[in-house]
């Protein structure tokens, strides 16, 4: 899946992000009025917020056709960070390249943030078992493997949480942060696709053309979990 997706990003999305910023940003004076350090902070926060909002849009029915290729991985690890349909990379261009340029984000900031964005995507999809005390502190600021693992849960309300890519700030502000699910209680994936053998690369590439499946297993059962005790925003082992 990475074979077409990575070139789609490197040859279309990334050049569009930098090229549009070079073309449009100089004529957008709003951010340019800010002092340089403050402008950089504003640009980074804006780019990360656009990543958060784009991720939420990917869970809407039309874009979910593409994004479910990423979520139906049954064994989340570093390779999941590259398991995207190339169509998702192309579809993201207006939002992730066009909007920053229209808002006046500079090309250098776009390029630097994209490197951070990709590194964080690899980090929080990894199966690293960080010391809990460390991760408990990290998640106050940034998305961690435990936090993003909950986003890949087969329980729908858990999948519809933790949309952040770099910072957890936006999930906190929009009340979409959910951290109180024990890792050993998670089942990763999309309920409709429970057999890895039924998901060869050829089907994954054509999956966006298939009808949307109900959020249920093939036998009709719906993954669920009783609401857990404790604050939603407190990480548990």
From TrEMBL:
Its main location: membrane. One of its GO terms (biological process) is lipid biosynthetic process. Keywords: Membrane, Transmembrane, Transmembrane helix. GO terms for molecular function: iron ion binding; oxidoreductase activity. It is found in: Membrane. GO terms for cellular component: membrane. Coiled coil: none annotated. Residues 43-176 form the Fatty acid hydroxylase domain. It comes from the Bacteria. This is Fatty acid hydroxylase domain-containing protein. It comes from Hymenobacter glacialis.
